[in-house]
Here is the input.
Amino acid sequence: MLPETCGSSLFLALPDDVFAIISRSLSLKDICNLSRCCKSLSALVASEKIWLSQCDVVGIVPTRDLVEWREGVVSYKALCRFLVRVKPLIGIWVHQNPELGNVVYVMPGFVSVVGCRIIPQELGPLGIEDGPILWAPVFEIIGDFDGSTTFLLHGREKGCDFLYPGLVESVEQNCNVLLLEVEPREKRNGCKLFPSKSFTHHSTEEISRKVCRSNSGLSRSQQVAGRNEAVVPFSRLAFGDRRTLLETVTGQVRLMVTDSIREPLFPRLREDAENFQKDLILLLRRRSLLLQMYKFGSDHSCTDLNESTAISAGPIQLELSDIRKSLDHSSSTSTSLNGDDGQTHGNNRKSIGGYFRASIKQILRKSSSLNGGRAMSRLNSSSGENRHALLHDFLNSGDTIGLTLHATKMKLSAYRAWPNMHDTQFALYKLPMRVPTEDQEYAGLWGGTFGWPPGRPTEDKPGKALFFLLLSYEETDGKRSLIATKILEGTHYVLHPNGSAMFIVNIDEPSLDPFPWDSDADSHPVSVKHAFMGEGIANGYGFRYPGSKPGSLFVIQNGLLAFIWKESRAVLTLQRLNLQDLLKKGEQVPALPPVANFSYLTKSYSNVFAGFSNTSTCSSSLRFVLYPIEECFN
Here is the structure.
């Protein structure tokens, strides 16, 4: 090879299209290292084609979507930065409560990812594919112009929809727990607590540094800890303090949802070309308004829905300097935080700072009453019971506090593919999604109903409970088992615990039982491809400890699965699901109050997300009327 074609000259001699193809086999770290070699390579690596290829490699959205997303950022490099950060969040997240199922699917929106809760529901006469799936928004993470992230929690209070802005903390690549927290922070230079500077004028070099910098894995609170050893992690606070902090902060930083930003959160299916293009226009405008609201705030009442007032200056974090001064003053003039402050309360109403001060005082009163009653018992308790930090110390850890979303990797035990969850963490837990392979062809998400033919309603029962099952494989003592874990149940009152194995079959043990029916819903003959022996869930020793009874799993043509209990002849029919497509054809319903909307910790055996079906519904689909269940949040 000639010397002039060696080294960097070889790359520089390649056309952009060819180098873009080669770059697909390189990691982001490799590309960033190339940009540091020399100015010529730096200019080559800065090509839009290179970073479009890298965005495509990330694999969150197809190439044609990337071209449309490019309108919302300064470059494909900025878009790649956003995609790399949010990719670990894509997938199914769950919580144990309520027992009917708490499924949040994180999917691409428009230069964003959206967390959507699937509402436990009955299946209408149109079936899974054509009937609208009910869902409620949980949170959004929007990519800013430079590819940085913006966190917006959804919630509903007193009949009004709100957004609750915050920050996205470190997102670990193999994260399995998503935490909603409040974090103390240091105030940034200037008066604004969130930067309002436009990123459209950022230089390529600056964005390159942001994309290429290594992820240290440290949250902002941990970074502050390097300068201030007194930082108290949110997780060390007592459960009551954490809950009260979250409720108070969300009550102060909320932004009103107006009609211009209410929807859509993601476009409809591309096959509906006309509506898809309309959605893109609305999404671009909505995203611009949301970013402005995030930076400048919005302050108006539930009855003030004019767009002219939708973007007005307002704080979205709480300052703590005045609060600490107030606490010091209170401690020197009174012996208790529960003293009469009626006069100061009246004066505090005159300023936002006073309003925040009164709110935090209320938190401290509750914390003091909770902690004070246990003071004597703590002195006599073991060190294991004295692990909670004081709320006062937490509030002294920074100048401001605000909401954060933290995606981390925790060591969790599991039973039959279902993680054991903490009862007092405001968290969601990720379920591992196995890609179907030749030896695990049934792995993945399936949905269906009881009865045959599948999904067909009857006059006495117009809708059937919709079940979501996650199928996974497990090998024990050389035997391969297929486990169907229940993650959603559309009954009015739960039949089996969340995370139960609806059935377990031995893949290596064929079943000789015949399939009871000769035809399907369209009167076509049924063709059974495979049948396996197994056991299905049954009544056991109470609700928490179900039993099992023999049955068989049948693999039918058109990709259907049917598990039949041998004794009762009950049949559960399943089909593989594409949640993203189902949600794009679905119907949005109101969310819960913000904290409960993210993580519902109250033990419940009924449907807390929806009421009951509307009997006057048109024949095209089965709808639901939602009713608030206020007592669940008291």
Summary: Residues 273-296 form the longest helix (24 residues).
